[in-house]
Amino acid sequence: MAVSARPAAVAGSFYPGNASQLGEMVEALRTAAGEPAALPGPLLGLLVPHAGLVYSGVVAAAAWGLLEREPPGTIVLLGTDHYGIGRGIAAWDRGPWSTPAGPVETDEVMAAAIAGLGPPFRADRSAHRDEHSIEVQLPLLRRAVPGARIVALATSIGTGPDAIAAGEMLGRLLADRRAAGEQVVLAASSDMAHYPTATDCERVTDALVPAILARDPARLAREEAALRWAGIRGLSCGMCGIEPAVVSLAAVGAMGAVGATVLAQATSADAGGPAGRTVGYLSVAFTG
Hints:
Elements: H1 19-33, E1 43-48, H2 53-64, E2 74-79, E3 88-92, H3 108-115, E4 121-123, H4 138-144, E5 149-156, H5 161-179, E6 184-189, H6 198-213, H7 217-228, H8 242-254, E7 259-267, E8 280-287
Parallel strand pairs: 1-6, 2-5, 2-6, 3-4
Antiparallel strand pairs: 1-8, 3-5, 7-8
């Protein structure tokens, strides 16, 4: 019996629903991002933004373009859970993800291995039903590595010791798979500040970058929480995907990351949005 595909939930809103128009946008974003950055070591992980592609697409394309050089076979994608549908770290374990440009297949063997780690990891397709944080990556991912498979993980675990322990568990599994010759990369999906002025948005990103580059999940969690309580006008969060970001920093550490490189940074105002109410975007590469 065929397993149903995960339908595109935000095609036509976060990105064009027409395949031709989407292809033109993706090519334009990739061109605007320029040549992929030179990295000091092998690519282990990425931090990528997940807003509408018209706003965050250039910053995201700067990350996904790196995969063109050494295309991985599998990309494990940690998304947030904006709607609170899931719990723990929920894997989409069977069936492809539909996009206007064609399907993106799930690595069902890797998904089963991750779900098999046990709590907080679990198989739960319902957690992904309406969530956009992974879906918006797929047009750029598919352009960079057309044949790659994914494991989509919806993250709803908080930012404390349990999240860090889960990240380390995931990272050890991925490190073992890489050591066995599998080409696998981890990616975490998170926008930055919501919704201060453009100036404050840039300051929030600048304040969080050192913890990200240090690959210190506990420090990132503390500093993001402190910013939310710092009285910055309009600010509701420093990272809307703070949970997958914390998990991913712990994971890349367990995978052997020794370096991190900022690839691109912007705000929604840079793409024509209002300067008085902005969202921040950041992409980072983690290397061994």
